Automatic annotation (TrEMBL), chain A:
Name of the protein: ABC transporter ATP-binding protein
Gene3D superfamilies reported in the protein's UniProt record: P-loop containing nucleotide triphosphate hydrolases
Keyword ATP-binding recorded: yes
Keyword check for Metal-binding: no
ABC transporter domain segment(s): 5-236
SUPFAM superfamilies linked to this entry: P-loop containing nucleoside triphosphate hydrolases
One MF annotation (Gene Ontology) recorded for this entry: ATP hydrolysis activity
Family under the similarity heading: Belongs to the ABC transporter superfamily.
Segments passing through the bilayer: none
Native source organism of the sequence: Streptomyces griseoviridis
Keywords: ATP-binding, Nucleotide-binding, Transport
Family matches, as InterPro entries: AAA+_ATPase, ABC_transporter-like_ATP-bd, ABC_transporter-like_CS, P-loop_NTPase
From TrEMBL, chain B:
UniProt lineage: Bacteria, Bacillati, Actinomycetota, Actinomycetes, Kitasatosporales
UniProt keyword annotation of Transcription present: no
Keywords: Membrane, Transmembrane, Transmembrane helix
Record organism: Streptomyces griseoviridis
Transmembrane segments: 36-55, 75-95, 116-138, 158-178, 185-211, 231-252, 259-278
Region of interest (Disordered), ranges: 1-21
Record protein name field: ABC transporter permease
Automatic annotation (TrEMBL), chain C:
Keywords: Membrane, Transmembrane, Transmembrane helix
UniProt-recorded name of the protein: ABC transporter
Coiled coil (residue ranges): none
Keyword Transmembrane attached: yes
UniProt organism field: Streptomyces griseoviridis
Residues annotated as transmembrane: 20-38, 44-65, 85-105, 117-135, 147-164, 184-200
């Protein structure tokens, strides 16, 4: 498996808060999901990898280029698509004009080829019909797709997407997954999300972050396997449960340390995620 | 099947408590007031205002303020605070729109007009804080040992009212122009037209009073009853304009609806018009007549007191200052010889009020024998100036004669005038127009100035470098000759025991 | 890069906050016109009007680098200095024309030395742009203009009060310190231009230029 992005020792502090604490990772083509609670440092990691902010310490390479130099950073940016957590727009631009503007900023100078490319990505995100409409007239989901189109334009080899599915309705989200899965063919995609289903359905690999560092790195199946034998069902809440809730059937579905003879059920990726986080919290307390 | 039970909310709904009404407005106003008081423009402008005021007030009027002037001096600083409040109030009232929350807030219980009213009410703590600062500044002046006169509450109100007016203007601006750029640009216009350069000048009648702060001031304070400033009408005018802007803002926000706002606007307009018309009537005939009397024949208006045999006549408000004057007269006389040493003087306070507050008209020298003029200002340079006049009268007989002194008597006058000071050389420098202690120069006095030749300056300088008591003894011994007309500078120097001028000099050269 | 710059002219021209600049320009013209229409104002008023007009220009230019799409375009290969310089180059001709109009509106007999006041105006404009660039460098905000404008206004108000006499910037043409103060203005203009250039660059490591 070729490694397209590798990082080691990435650290970044905001005052006394350690947003990134010695983060190391290796990414290869395909979609990698980044899970973690709010404030875990996901967005900071994505911004560092997207060269939007420099790190305090550490180094990384993207597609063989080192963003630690002016030239290297420019080379990385030529191969990069970035969708920030809160994308902003010039509201008076049309969707086409805005993506075209970003395309120029990505140095697509051949006007006809660029316009073709802009039309292609707008088609791809399903905005072909509204590309002449001003962004201020578009709905929230449509704006999110304009931002995705801006990230996709120019066929970048490394795609950094920060919570792209926030605020989308279920149908739009399905459409997005399709898009991202398509984008992941032959490209390296790093996708941060709160939606464990996104990860389960899309990703070849998954990273779990907490408190500025990576706590899990593996396949979704491996993350799910973390919860094997630790999810059970019973008619009352048990003491060993880290989390549990009454389901629609009236029984409790619980995750944690099951009592003797508990009725085990099939774990999901979310169960594994919760347990990884729980372990992370335990580790923090022990430290 | 899952059932969704929507519980009755335990929190009383807004409608139940009637928070859409005055209580809701008050709650929002408190919230906005806190934000306004801690907003960057307000904090910054108050910091600058307070620092500047404290720095200025430490030495204002050389420690001898006339309170009828000190009240006006509180009006400048709030112009700066007003600008900060204008910006902050505009930004606060624009906040709904800027963050795209207007639609959301539009669904809340408080309608737009009342939200605007809350923004306006939120100005009150800032206005109150300004009033506290103004009161503190004035109280500080009033507590200075040298303070005389009376302040006017209406003049003190101008500062806080200016802040209210500008704050209301900020809120109105936010309702008229949704851009955050409107307020800073209006701020520059405000600075240019109202504060820095092109403000009211010269004439105090008519349109000048349409400006928020009209700071007519000349060099010398006037007695309170001669000021003729329509301060109360002006305060009414300012309050009226501020309320007009406020009610206009509410009406614009409520799209013209609201009976009480319309009624309020009408009342405010009436206030502004009444004040505006009344304040611009100019100086009344009685005032002009009173100023004429005080300028031409002050003896009819003044009260006299006696100190050490001399008589001090002053306008009522300045009578407490007679002791300060008597102190200077006593010290000058202590250096003089007989018979001047015990000669009773009449110290008369005089003003020139006929040309208005902001004229700096000179007072002509008095021709009466043994009468000295004192102005309405005191402290700092006014002291040696008065001292020079006293010395001139003791030596030459009258102020008019002293102003024409040309001969060696000038040496005695200047030595008397500054010799008693702790720092006579520094005082000599200050009392001379060009701040020098060499060469010919004009010496300032309350009325006509005196003049020193270069030779006289040299002799006086040498005298001041010598032992004071020794010179005083010689001055007393040769007093008659030193003060006789025609004595030369060289002779005076000889009598007082210092080298004379290098060459003979006179003021004719 | 040249092709990119050419292609960027049109979209970047659309992202320039023309309305704020236009409003500021209008107020500046109004100030100059007020001098023209006024009844025999002294030359000091004309100078004050020009300085206030320069200040309004600065307030408008404080918004020059406002960019709501900042984060969306955070990681593009066209460097930030190029994008900022392009914006500056786009507004420079209209701003220069505007300033010429402001100067010409002031009657010739009242007008202070044009080159010197132009230097003052240029320094104020550069100060506004440099302030915006520094704000962009130090914060994550997309619209630093309003805060920079506030700071500029505050500096204009308090600078004359706080600057010691030796460094005074605001003097009258008849004042013997006029020439020396304009050396300081030139120094200020150069210094702010350098600050702008330095803070426009994107750092490779945090806390270092």
């Amino acid at each position: 498996m070729t490694i397209t992005v590798s990082a080691s020792g990435l650290s970044l502090h905001y005052g006394r808060t350690r947003a990134l604490d010695e983060v190391g990772l290796r990414l290869s083509p395909g979609v990698t999901g980044l899970l973690g609670p709010n404030g875990a440092g996901k967005t900071t990691l994505l911004r560092v990898l997207a060269t939007a902010v420099p790190a305090d310490r550490g180094a990384f390479t993207v597609l063989g280029h080192d963003p630690g130099t002016v030239r290297g950073r420019q080379e990385v940016r030529r191969r990069l698509g970035y969708l920030p957590q809160t994308p902003g727009f010039h509201p008076d631009f049309t969707a086409f004009a805005f993506v075209d503007y970003v395309a120029v900023l990505k140095e697509l100078t051949d006007r006809r080829a660029r316009h073709r490319e802009v039309r292609r990505v707008l088609e791809e995100v399903g905005l072909g019909d509204v590309r002449g409409r001003r962004i201020k007239k578009l709905s929230g989901g449509m704006r999110q797709r304009v931002a995705l189109a801006a990230a996709l334009v120019g066929d970048p080899g490394f795609l950094v997407l920060d919570e792209p599915t926030v605020g989308l309705d279920p149908e739009q989200r399905m459409r997005f997954r399709e898009l991202i899965a398509g984008a992941g063919e032959g490209r390296t995609v790093l996708l941060s999300t709160h939606q464990t289903e996104d990860v389960a359905m899309l990703c070849r690999r998954v990273l779990v972050m907490a408190a500025g560092s990576v706590r899990f790195d593996g396949t979704p199946a491996e993350l799910t396997a973390r919860a094997a034998g630790r999810v059970w069902r019973s008619d009352r809440r048990d003491a060993g449960a880290k989390a549990g809730w009454r389901t629609g059937t009236g029984e409790f579905r619980q995750v944690g340390d099951p009592p003797e003879g508990a009725e085990l059920v099939e774990p999901t990726l979310e169960d594994g995620y919760l347990l990884v986080l729980d372990g992370a919290v335990d580790a923090e307390v022990a430290a | 099947m899952n059932t969704v039970v929507v519980e009755e909310s335990p929190v009383p709904s807004a409608a139940a408590k009637g928070t859409g009404g005055p209580r809701g407005v008050a709650a929002l106003a408190r919230f906005e007031a806190r934000r306004l008081l801690t907003s960057a423009p307000v904090v910054f402008s108050f910091a600058v205002y307070i620092l500047w005021t404290v720095w200025r007030t430490r030495s204002s009027w050389d420690g001898f303020p006339a309170l009828q002037d000190a009240d006006r001096a509180t009006q400048g600083g709030p112009l700066l605070v007003g600008l900060g409040v204008l910006l902050a109030a505009d930004f606060a009232a624009l906040r709904d729109r800027r963050r795209g929350t207007q639609e959301w807030f539009g669904t809340l219980v408080l309608p737009a007009g009342r939200r605007t009213a809350a923004h306006l009410l939120a100005l009150l703590p800032v206005v109150l804080l300004t009033a506290v600062c103004v009161a503190a500044q004035f109280t500080w002046e009033a507590l200075k040992p040298g303070a005389v006169g009376h302040g006017s509450p209406a003049e003190l109100l101008v500062g806080p009212l200016t802040v209210l007016l500008l704050g209301a203007a900020g809120v109105l601006l936010a309702r008229l122009a949704a851009s955050v750029w409107a307020a800073p640009l209006l701020g520059v216009l405000y600075l240019f037209f109202l504060v820095l350069g092109t403000g009211p000048s010269g004439d105090t009648g008519g349109t000048a009073w349409l400006y928020p702060v009209v700071s007519t001031s000349g060099n010398s304070p006037f007695p309170s009853d001669l000021l003729g400033r329509p301060a109360a009408w002006h305060a009414l005018y300012l309050a009226g304009v501020a309320l007009c802007l406020a009610f206009l803002a509410v009406l614009v926000a409520a799209r013209g609806r609201g009976v009480s706002a319309r009624a309020g606007l009408a009342v405010a307009l009436a206030m502004a018009l009444t004040g505006g018309v009344a304040q611009s009537r100019g100086d009344s005939a009685e005032l002009l007549a009173a100023r004429e009397r005080a300028s031409a024949a002050p003896e009819k208006e003044q009260r006299c007191v006696t100190r050490d045999g001399s008589t001090y006549c002053a306008f009522d408000e300045w009578v407490p200052r007679a002791d300060d004057w008597a102190g200077v007269v006593g010290r000058v006389r202590s250096l003089a010889g007989d018979p001047a040493r015990d000669r009773p003087l009449l110290v008369r306070q005089r003003i020139e009020a006929r040309y208005g507050l902001d004229s700096d008209s000179a007072i002509p020298a008095s021709t009466r024998r043994h009468q000295v003029t004192v102005g309405t200002a005191w402290g700092g340079n006014r002291v040696p100036e008065f001292s020079a006049a006293v010395a001139g009268v003791l030596v030459a007989g009258s102020e008019a004669a002293a102003a024409e002194l040309c001969d060696g008597r000038m040496v005695t006058v200047m030595w008397l005038a500054v010799g008693w000071e702790d720092d006579p050389m520094g005082t000599l420098r200050r009392v001379r127009l060009d701040d020098s202690v060499e060469g010919a120069a004009v010496v300032l006095a309350p009325t006509d100035p005196l003049s020193m030749t270069a030779g006289q300056t040299d002799v006086v300088r040498r005298l001041l470098e010598k032992d004071r008591d020794g010179v005083a003894a010689k001055a007393r011994a040769h007093w008659d000759e030193l003060t006789s007309p025609g004595v030369t500078t060289a002779r005076a120097a000889e009598l007082l025991g210092v080298p004379g001028p290098e060459k003979a000099d006179s003021c004719e050269e | 890069m040249r092709g990119v710059t050419r292609d960027l002219v049109r979209p970047v021209a659309r992202t320039v906050p023309w309305r704020a600049l236009g409003a500021a320009g209008g107020v500046g013209l109004l100030l100059a016109a007020a001098v023209r229409w006024a009844d025999g104002p002294p030359p000091s008023t004309a100078l004050l009007a020009l300085r206030c007009a320069a200040l309004t220009g600065g307030l408008g230019l404080a918004s020059l680098l406002d960019d709501p799409a900042r984060h969306t375009t955070a990681a593009v290969p066209v460097p930030r200095p190029v994008r900022q310089a392009l914006r500056a180059a786009l507004v420079a001709p209209p701003v220069a024309l505007w300033w010429a109009a402001v100067l010409l509106l002031v009657p010739a007999d009242l007008r202070p030395p044009a080159a010197d006041v132009t230097l003052e105006a240029a320094a104020v404009s550069l100060l506004a742009c440099a302030g915006a660039a520094v704000a962009l460098r130090l914060t994550e905000g997309t619209r630093p203009g309003r805060a920079v404008a506030g700071a500029l206004l505050a500096a204009a108000l308090t600078g004359p009060l706080l600057l010691p006499d030796r460094w005074t910037l605001l003097v009258q043409p008849a004042d013997p310190r006029w020439a020396a103060s304009h050396d300081r203005w030139a120094g200020l203009a150069v210094a702010t231009a350098v600050v702008w250039a330095l803070s426009a660059r994107e750092p490779l490591r945090r806390g270092r230029p």
